[in-house]
Amino acid sequence: MEIKLKTLKFDAGEKLTAFVEKKVSRLERFFLPGVPPQTEVTLEEVKEGKKVKLKIHLPGDELIIERVADTFENAVTGSVDAMKEKLTRTKEKDFDK
Length: 97
Hints:
alpha+beta; Double Stranded RNA Binding Domain; 2 helices; 38% helix
């Protein structure tokens, strides 16, 4: 899976980059076989805290989850958990057709 990591207004360290890649790569098991998704993760510091935007481009669809938390790690974990649910619902919807 290809993961693009964007950081806005700051530079992410190796530790944060490794954490994001590890968490987001777990989503790979929820994809259909043979469909290589493009995954984009945007990290940004905002007034409310740390914001993560997780965007997955699937053939014919684009799934987006945004989360704000006190740390990037919590925001990434929350967005990955929400994306797992969204991918499961999308997969079930596609099989029902």
